[in-house]
Amino acid sequence: MKKQLTGLTLCVLAILLLGSCREWRERMAENSRIYRLAEQHAETRAVAYIREKYGVEAAALGYDVQGSDVYMGGFYANAGVLVLMEQDGKQFFVYLNLDSESIFFDNFQSEEISAALETAVLERLALPMPEESTIKYSVWESGGWTVAPAIDGKGYSVQNMVNFRYDGQSGEELLNQMDDVFYTGYFCEDLSLDTLDLDPADWPDREDFWLRTGLIQFLDREHYERFLEQYEQMPTLYTMQEHAKYWPFLRGQLSLTLSYRSWDPNYEREYQSYVSASQYGLDFIGVMPFDPETCLAVSEDVPVWHMETKKDICDYEQVSPLLYLSYPEEWETGPVKTHILCTVPEDYFAEHGEPLYVGVYCHYPKQDLVYVYPKALDRTNASFGIARTAYMMDSATAPHEVQYALLRLVSREAIPQPTPGVM
Predict the structure, then answer these.
(1) Rounded Cα distance, 53 and 369, in Å
(2) Taking the model in full, what pTM does it have?
(3) Burial of 329 (0-12, 13-18, 19+ CB in 10 A)
(4) Which three-class secondary structure string do you get for the chain?
(5) Rounded to an integer, what is the distance from CA 319 to the centroid of its chain?
(6) d(Cα 324, Cα 402) in Å, to the nearest integer?
């Protein structure tokens, strides 16, 4: 019986293997067909398409065959191709389908369409022109290409592809042709973002429409210019919301989302503003309504800051109170921002020395844990975040409370390391 089962198993495996080999050969043949068509027709078809649509001559600089990487199965090409084009120094993309004569998209008029859409968004929100902005949009049928095609070893980002020509259509007409509009504006003016809202009646009422608007307000022009000096690239709305190092430059951020897709809420509004305070000789900034003056507390605990690693043994002296976040009961059940940014002023370093270290005291259900951030604080890197729980741990093992203190290194003893190859 055992021998019969073994023989049957081998037969089944052989059939599966033959089927897999046949499927693989068919896929490789399809890949070869697509690559051959792309080499023969992709660039010439893209050039002809731009000539017919816009009446201009553009040069094709290369193309990327679209597809997907299948685990253990190699690359599965599809008939979609992205062609990199150039016209009078302006680079753009054309997307075409090798098996269709009618599927074409391009972003040749991306600047003109973006400007018209931005005007439409700002008019509906009654906002002035921002200092700078980004806008991304798409029409629903325009999927099928990768985010970053590679042409001649260089990666590209493909955005704002449409299948129509812009001939001065109104903002309302453009919005009605879009399925996804994501706008971010950066402002220096004194705007009332805390009361700003949108009226869904001003926007397309379609099942597939999705609007995401992010408005970021700096404290003033001086803080905006200082921000540009410090950071080379303007972060996205979500990055600036989550990373507290940006908060000292900002007055507030407003996110408005309108969606008629079944998996999204119909309308969602989130406003985030900041408040600053100085306590215990340190500077704090947090997200409203969690005022650092009311939700920041000190503990009477005095941990022993003694750290042992494989390389050294360190002892630290605590130079600040043991800080932790303490919220009123009414905030316990809802979603809350539990992050405060602490910045050490220069006179604090002058009094306690430089560098300083951040000690963390975690209270677990069964035991307490003490550790020290390896990266030191100094005048060039003087900030750290205070959170209520340790986010790197799941809820089942997260500590009940996390406390923070500034430390000064008292002693460091290096542990001799064994010489390689010597017993």
Answers:
(1) 67
(2) 0.76
(3) exposed
(4) CHHHHHHHHHHHHHHHHHHHHHHHHHHHHHHHHHHHHHHHHHHHHHHHHHHHHHCCCCEEEEEEEEEEEECCCEEEEEEEEEEEEEECCEEEEEEEECCCCCCEEECCCHHHHHHHHHHHHHHHHCCCCCCEEEEEEECHHHCCCCCCCEECCEECCCCCCECCCCCCCCHHHHHHHCCEEEEEEEECCCCCCCCCCCCHHHCCCCCCCEEEEEEEEECCHHHHHHHHHHCCCCCCHHHHHHCHHHHHHEEEEEEEEEECCCCCCCEEEEEEEEEEEEECCEEEEEECCCCHHHHEEEECCCCCCEEECCCEEEEEEECCCEEEECCCHHHCCCCCCCEEEEECCHHHHHHHCCCEEEEEEEECCCCEEEEECCCCEECCECEEEEECCCCCCCCCCCCCEEEEEEEEEEEEEECCCCCCCCC
(5) 36
(6) 6
* Residue 83, strand partner residues: 63, 94
Which amino acid, residue 144? G
Three-state SS string across 25-48, please? Answer: HHHHHHHHHHHHHHHHHHHHHHHH
From CA 139, how far away is CA 43, in angstroms rounded? 23
**In this structure, what token pair is assigned to residue 272?**
């985030």
pLDDT in tens, 192-248: 898 999 988 888 888 788 999 999 999 999 999 999 998 878 888 888 877 888 888
The CA distance from 178 to 208, in Å, is 9
* pLDDT tens-digit map of 280-302: 999 998 887 667 777 888 888 88
Total number of residues shown for the chain: 423
The residues that bridge with 320 in the sheet, in sequence order, are none
